Amino acid sequence: MKIMKEIKTYENFPKGIALSSNLVAISIYAIGTCILAGFGIVLSTLYLLYCLWIEIRVLKGSCVDCYYYGKVCGFGKGKLCSLLFKKGEPQKFVEKEVSWSKILPDFMVFILPTVGGIIFLVREFSWLIVAMLTILLILSFVGNALIRGSVACKYCKQREIGCPAEKLFKKEGK
Ligand code: SF4
Predict the structure, then answer these.
(1) Are the CB atoms for 135 and 148 separated by under 8 Å?
(2) Is the minimum distance from the CB of 72 to ligand 1 under 6 angstroms?
């Protein structure tokens, strides 16, 4: 007899998971800012403002409709969202159309400093920039994939209800 392993979902994620996923995101923003600081304070400040806009965009556009609104989700955003925005419509979350072009702005968070870092290296080689670029790419690809695949999405109740973003990533991962 085949025994199916049941994957449990969290009603409220353990704070350690929310903390780790935020640590990955904050580290990406911080390293991106440091890389772009090589081009001056204006560019690095603009980049930080862009990261802030990305966070607000997710809270306003997705978290308001998510099952975890007012709760601790894998990214800790459900609680924060309920403090800043009114609850939306859960059905909207499931019906949302997510495509690679729609989530391109999220990827720009690491694409911008990566391009900046490469330009910097062409102009003036620096091991510090090489190290920061390496960590940035590891966190963006491996870090994010681990957080999503092994903890956040895996134990997410919204995934069970329906999550277009998770479906898109899963389709590509096949
Ligand atoms: S399945 Fe993943 S992307 Fe979708 S709501 Fe849950 S944590 Fe977020």
Answers:
(1) no
(2) no
Chain position carrying tokens 């975890």? 68
Alpha carbon distance 121, 116 (integer Å):
9
Ligand 1 within 6 A of CB of 157: no
How far, in Å, are 2, 29, 93, 102 from residue 80 at the CA level? 42, 19, 18, 23
**Per-residue model confidence as pLDDT tens digits over 48-96:** 999 999 999 999 999 999 999 999 999 999 999 999 999 999 999 999 9
Supply the residue whose CA is at minimum distance from atom 5 of ligand 1.
158
Predicted TM-score (pTM) above 0.85:
yes
Kindly state if the Cβ of 163 falls inside 6 Å of ligand 1. Answer: yes
Span from the CA of 108 to the centroid of ligand 1 (angstroms):
20
Distance CA 109, CA 124 (A): 23
Structure tokens given for 153: 């999405």
Query: Using a 6 Å cutoff on CB, does residue 152 contact ligand 1?
Result: yes
Report how far ligand 1's centroid is from the alpha carbon of 87 (Å): 17
